Amino acid sequence: MFDFNATLPLMAIQFLLLTAILNVVFFKPLSKALADRQDYINGNTTEARERLDKAKRLAQEYDEKLSSSRRQAQTIVLDAQANAQKKSAQQLAEAQRRVQEQSMVVQQELDQQKQSAFSQLEKEVDSLSKQILSKLLGPGLAG
């Protein structure tokens, strides 16, 4: 049925030789190209991760600085408000003190004028009383 001659081993050798040639000519360069491509992708992925990490760190630093700046600004505003309230309270107290002093001075002047008016009225009343008495009783009896 089958004849065993040199054809079968020759075909096997030819197949192995063709496989070796195809491996050297096509598969090794293709494998190398795929490996290079995978290395390139891995390198880019690693670089992208590093850049993403750096961007996250920078964003976090920015947020921290922004938060710190906001706290400082709020502290400055609160200090300014406290100083303004303190200053306005001092100015109000000073104004009230001046008004109180002026009120006291005016009250004293009014009291003096009142005393002066009373004393002048007393003199006039005395004078008028003497005149009325002298007219009623006569000039000699009144005094």
Task: Give your account of this protein's structure.
The structure is a single chain. The chain is mainly α. The protein has one helix at residues 7-137. The longest helix is centred in the middle third of the chain and has 131 residues, at 7-137.
End-to-end distance: 189 Å
Total strand segments: 0
Strand content: under 5%
Derived from helix and strand composition plus strand pairing, the structural class reads: mainly alpha
Main beta sheet strand tally, sense and closure:
none
Radius of gyration, taken over Cα atoms and rounded to an integer in Å? 60 Å
- Which H/E pattern describes the elements? H
Count of discrete alpha- or pi-helical segments spanning 4 or more residues: 1
pLDDT averaged over residues? 91
Helix content: over 70%
- Would you identify the regions where 5 or more consecutive residues have pLDDT less than 50? none
